[in-house]
Amino acid sequence: MAYFSLRRFGHRLLSTLRRLLRIRRTVEEDYRDFNGNYFSSFYEQERMLADPPRMEFYRAAIERHIRPGDRVIDLGTGTGILAALASRQGAACVYAIDHSAILDTARVLADANKLERVEFIAAHSTEFSVAGRVDVILHEQMGDCLFDEGMVANVCDLRNRLLKPGGRILPSQFEFFCEPVKVRDDRHVPFIWELKVCGYDYSALERDRPQNSDYYQCRSSDPTFVEHFLGTPAPALTFDLQSVDEATLPKSLVITRTVLHAGRLDGFVIFFRTRVDADLVLSSGPLDPGRAPHWGYRILRTEYDTFDVGDELEVRLTVDRWSNLDSWRWSHRKLTPPVAPATEPPTPTPVGDRATTTGR
Ligand SMILES: C[S@@+](CC[C@H](N)C(=O)[O-])C[C@H]1O[C@@H](n2cnc3c(N)ncnc32)[C@H](O)[C@@H]1O
Hints:
- The protein folds into three domains: about 1-30; about 40-140, Rossmann fold, CATH 3.40.50; about 175-235 and about 240-360, Hnrnp arginine n-methyltransferase1 (Distorted Sandwich), CATH 2.70.160.11.
- About 25% of the residues lie in helices and about 30% in strands.
- It contains six helices and 18 strands.
- Strands 6, 9, 10, 11, 13, 14 and 15 form a seven-stranded antiparallel β-sheet that branches.
- A hairpin with a 2-residue loop joins strand 13 and strand 14 (about 280-285).
- Residues about 345-360 have low confidence and may be disordered.
- The structure holds S-adenosylmethionine.
């Protein structure tokens, strides 16, 4: 009897330990595994290589900013294309790092193309080290939502440990956007509890709102999906990888827009721009001419709401960690117009702010 009780206790202890270990894995190690598998596929590499604005941006950036004799780290080399361009530019040595099995393909291609002065390293960047600091860190670590491939943590780690003072990060200047948006009517999908279909009412489902954050985000890479921004787009956040750190990024952003297009608000579209020179910009913005087409963008969905021209719309985005999209929360409200100075006693009926929150 004592033996069985002890065994049961042992099993319970083990499964609790397993559960605890699994929770600790979730955020970083699970993402690493996902990222490594995802980029091991030829198809994902093909989509990036066949994206002309992306490739032209990197080709020009490398041609302009990598000098003969530079020592370069290519963080996340994939098929090795950026390392190859850096070598062609005269880099003395390129350390081409990747944690995915795609690195075997990069080696095959390097042999076939007689690539010189490139050293391939199968490792996660945080485990890579080299004697002496390098002149340039080259990377393409931008996710659809800019932060979701761990760019800030990975680049800053290499910068702090291995970049010379005054060394270059290509690219380093970023603009992050979170713009109120209306999608085309024929593509708009309301939340299920907002629907009445052929007289059949779904509002009873409001109390069963899904708890998974993914449900509140809609993905697309089709630029025709977006009809317009409600206001004039402007970066919600700008930063430079030369100086930023994950810990110094704000955890809360407030964006206000004056509405220029009356009508429905469907959510907040997340996209980025990065700049190497004034005339060398790469964008994933759905309405930007020349956007890099392989990047998708995300719309943070909102419940039904409408605006008039001239309304002031305030959007709040808070995050626990930028790299963890599950930790993003957003809300918006219509700001009350300023009240004109009263010449008569104020009316007893207050004009309240209207606030809606999309959340779990
Ligand atoms: C977006 S792809 C870019 C590939 C290539 N640089 C290009 O521009 O075509 C990102 C690559 O980085 C790799 N990667 C992501 N994070 C990494 C890390 N921390 N250390 C090493 N490799 C990483 C992925 O496996 C993937 O091959």
